């Protein structure tokens, strides 16, 4: 059984699993639209995943100038792997189910956790229960609505976000880039799970 710790504190233990799956986990603090670009956001995902011993590759759940959110997960994995939270509870049946006009809602009563193990809906560290994404509901980049490639935290500039309380990740809510919102990280490579 593998146990995870963050900053010296126990987070959780889980039994080993060989079944392929992808995790969706939040950064440990809300972010404005200025994340130093998509590379800055991706680096935070990478850094915080490593800090708790997760070995998969994590990318920010964001569209950017050169990337549609939908394409972050490999084509072969989009409709075959479940999307789980930090504690291996199913959030969505597949990556594909998050997108499109008939999008699925998150499973009820299954929380999204941060890398350090907090339920982001219940925890006051995230006063705004909004998730940055910068995408259409099909996961395509929206050029005028991703906080100038995630480099702007100014009030007049906007980015697209979604209310987590809706149970959907791609609501089309135009929001000021000065807002501090949730940033999610999606595991997009399933290598090395068996090594945990």
TrEMBL record:
Pfam family, one: Endostatin
All copies of domain Collagenase NC10/endostatin, residue ranges: 22-190
Protein name: Collagenase NC10/endostatin domain-containing protein
């Amino acid at each position: 059984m593998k146990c995870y710790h963050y900053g010296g504190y126990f987070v959780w233990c889980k039994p080993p699993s060989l079944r392929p799956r992808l995790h969706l986990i939040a950064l440990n603090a809300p972010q404005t639209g200025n994340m130093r670009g998509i590379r800055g956001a991706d680096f935070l995902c990478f850094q915080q995943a490593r800090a708790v011993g997760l070995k998969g590759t994590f990318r920010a759940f964001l569209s950017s100038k050169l990337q549609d959110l939908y394409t972050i997960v490999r084509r072969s994995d989009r409709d075959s792997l479940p999307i789980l939270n930090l504690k291996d509870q199913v959030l969505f049946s597949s990556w594909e189910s998050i997108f499109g006009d008939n999008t699925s809602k998150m499973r009820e009563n299954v929380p999204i956790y941060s890398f350090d193990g907090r339920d982001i809906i219940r925890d006051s560290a995230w006063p705004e229960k909004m998730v940055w994404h910068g995408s259409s509901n099909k996961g395509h980049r929206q050029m005028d609505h991703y906080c100038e490639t995630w480099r702007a935290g100014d009030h007049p500039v906007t980015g697209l976000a979604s209310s987590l309380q809706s149970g959907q990740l791609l609501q089309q809510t135009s929001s000021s880039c000065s807002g501090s919102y949730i940033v999610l990280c999606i595991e997009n490579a399933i290598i090395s799970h068996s090594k945990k």
